[in-house]
C-alpha cells in the first residue's frame, strides 16, 4: 500500500495543507465575527466592504471545492494517474486557494478571480488525468 502512495506524497501533503487552510479560515472568520459583535449562528450581512463577510465567504468558497480535490486526488492515486501531474496540479490547486483566500481577505477582486480560475483549472486537470488513467 505504501508503494502505491509513495509517488504521490506531495499531493497528499496538499490534502493535509487544505485541511489546515480550512481550519485557519474557520478560526479567522470566528474570531473576526466574535470581535465585531456578530451573534454566532445569525446571518452575516452580504457586504464586500465588511471583513467578516469576506472571511466567511473565503472559507465557504474553499469548503465548496475541497471535496472535489479530495475525490479527484484519491481517484487519481487509485487509478495510477501520472504522479508528477497529480502532484503539480494538487500544488497548483493549493496555491490558488491560498491566493484566493488572501485576495478575498484584502478585497482584491480581479486577482481573486484569477486565483479561483487557477484552482478550478487544476481540478479539471485532475479530472482529465483520472479519466485518462481509467481508460
Describe this structure in words.
It contains five helices and no strands. Helix content is 81%, strand content 0%. It has helices at 2-6, 9-35, 51-79, 83-105, 109-134. The protein is mostly helical. The protein has a single domain, classed as Membrane associated eicosanoid/glutathione metabolism-like domain (Four Helix Bundle (Hemerythrin (Met), subunit A)), CATH 1.20.120.550.
Whole-angstrom Rg: 17 Å
Major sheet: none
Can you identify the CATH superfamily?
Membrane associated eicosanoid/glutathione metabolism-like domain
Form type: elongated
Helix run count: 5
Classified by CATH, the class is Mainly Alpha
Oligomer: single chain
User: What is the overall pLDDT average?
Assistant: 96
Helix proportion: over 70%
Q: Separation of termini?
A: 23 Å
Secondary-structure-derived class: mainly alpha
